[in-house]
Amino acid sequence: MTSTTDSMPSRRGFLGGSAKTLSSAGLVAMMGSGAALGFQSGGNPEQDVQLLNAAIALEHEGIAAYTIAAGSGLLAPEVVNIGVIFRGHHREHRDELIRAVETLGGMPVAAESDAHYAEALNAGSLQNQADVLRLAYGLEVGAANAYLGLIPSLSTTEQHQLAARMAGDEAFHAAILGNAIGEAIPTAGLMFG
Amino acid sequence: MTRMTCHLPPARRWALAMTAVIASMAAGFTPAAAQDGAEANPLLTGDLTRGERLYRQRCAACHALDVNRAGPSHRGVVGREAGTVSGYRYTAALRDSGLIWTPEALDEWLANPPAMVPGTSMGVRIPNAQARADIITWLAEQTDPASETD
User: What CATH number should be reported for the domain whose range is B10-144?
Assistant: First the structure.
């Protein structure tokens, strides 16, 4: 299981001692991608930290789900390869969310063990590849909807954009998985959110 | 909005909650007033089949009936005091809210959780009042067998 804080630089301590002497332009330059994405304090940082942490928890579970699936022995090698790519997307989501929380001065929520997630997802009931794909499809549909439902609760345009981009990724995953399990193409539009 | 501060013994609190739930269900419940884009439609009747599907699509990314995931388990949620599922780490905001999850309270919650309980980690909104009614109707059927008496 990948640590929730691997490769994540802590900027808060550094900023705590330096911010008073820096211009806002200097701060943006030094804060790097988090600031570039616009995660400076504004709106309601404490509330945003809570909401973004819930999204991190969701991504932790998604990463674990693909790890559990890849190691289940139920998937064909080419399916494992696709799952590993999807897991990489979720790791990128997690890392962006962690960066956002840290930039707001919050503490990112840690991942639970894979065993915890396996139990929560009832992974023991999965019997074959189709079962695994159906589980993944449901999780991805839910994640796309969750991000879309989260957008109006977040404070800043940049957070809205990040959540929308993640929703797009989840919808992409759902479309691939839905096709694999033979889900009918929805006849109505606006199928998420 | 239904917001109840609980300083009552557990048995009386439960009885009070169930009275509110039963009264609400008997009359049909009135969803929360429109806020932040949420629709305001009075006296919507929920549909169980749609509610199950919507729960899977809108809630099951984070929730399950019987296990805590990113969000707390939901079996028996209607009528329950907020912030009381065993083993789930709630925000202080929700744990101390004093809310009882009546259908009306759930409707307001699902329309805009942070507006109802500032500081909550639940941010997913369901702006469509009929969708909320369907989900709440289905949740009301997912009772906890341990709490049922014969």
Answer: 1.10.760.10
